[in-house]
Amino acid sequence: MKLPLSRASLSHVYPVRNTYVLCLLMSNIWSQCLQLLHTRVNDHSVATWLDPIICESVTHDRIVLSVPNNFFIGWIQDNYLDMIKEIITDLTSTGLQIDFRSRNELSADVPGDKSSRPSEVSHRSGSAISDSFALKHRLNPLYTFESFVVGKCNDFSHAAAVAVSEKLAGSYNPLFIYADVGLGKTHLMSSIGYAVLSKDKTKKVYFTTSEEFTNETINAIQHDKMAYFRNKYRHVDLLLIDDIQFLARKERTQEEFFHTFNSLYENRKQIVITCDRFHNEISGIEERLKSRFGWGLVADMTMPELETRVAILKRKAYEDSVTIPDDVAFFLAEQADSNIRELVGSLIRLVAMSTLQGMPMTLELAEKCFKEKLNRPPKTVTVDEIISHVSKTFDVKVADIKSRKKHKLYSRPRQVAMYLARDLTELSYPEIGQAFGGKDHSTVIYATRKIEKELEKNRPLKSQVEGLKKDIKG
Ligand code: ADP
Ligand code: MG
Fold it and tell me: Is the CB of 318 under 6 A from ligand 1?
């Protein structure tokens, strides 16, 4: 779809003297461009390179994009500039000159309190390695222990990650970190690699995602390069493999990963794995792999509480040399209640809006920025949807969940579904009972309390219920 966004074509629709309107319209170009980039670039690269870009200004012939540091500029120019140019030309018909600026340089232009702004932001611990050295190891230089905010939600995983970085292949091998999307898995895992290399540059650290591992397996098979592939993976000191859940149902890749795992483990090399769920709950992964994932230490992270979210926002603002007032930070942290990536995104959006409009970052501006989100009605979930998801997860029929059968095989999923119905809908206990084939409200109360209590100590159940919630909410 081409959007006629040149100044000339806009002039008959919007008065050109209203440069503010023009500016806002043009600024949409970047969000549209980003959406299209998302379809072409893998998630990891989008999160590392493209999401941190802020569109600073757009005129009829020029777009200024700011990035965290100078290294980003070079990387984006080398890897993504052609793609960005092509998309922008497509969107505007005429194309725009694209200029990049490092945010360190830009800090003087950002409205707000300048007195407390750091002149240089440190996100590294100890003897830091250069950004390019980190990138050569496929590590995001911004993802370090120092820039990772610790709270109750992640202190266990954080402590485990630090311990692993201090002693590779000690007691915590493999380290399996699981958490919902956007809760800092990649950040924490990358920090381990960064810390290890900071201490010893000769260590062989390799970061990959399970999708890349899959592609490499396929390529190696296709081009008869299995020996090279195995040599590469089996001779590292530290293998960081992100989002292992994507190995599901890829049998040949799982086979290859199984041997890679064994070889590294037997040779006392460290493996760190991240996943969006508890290892025993990943469907489509062979049992022998799942059990290996639990051999070392399994650690989880949950959504940070409000104060930690505020601390994360402040840390991110600090890295971007922006000062965020407390009331604005609390407002943003209250809005983002499901993942930190969303929280970071909201800050980026607010900084962009503040810069674009030349206005300080006030609560008023933040509320304006979120108006659309605040007005959006939450997705409504029906009991039947919940029962259908639960029936698939527990592999029982919907009719059995709604039945009066007492066997644990049916009562367990029924109780989980009742708990979810209470949690995800506004229905009363009697209404839920009705939707479960006419059960008494006391049955629903009993089921809900039982699951609530179990969730406090039964981690696999917690992970399963969280996975279900995620699936149900879409
Ligand atoms: P995941 O891999 O779990 O989907 P990421 O590691 O990509 O999540 O984190 C998403 C964003 O949130 C990143 O910008 C990351 O730096 C930030 N983030 C997550 N947790 C923290 C934390 N504890 N401290 C600072 N930033 C965090
Ligand atoms: Mg990740």
Answer: no
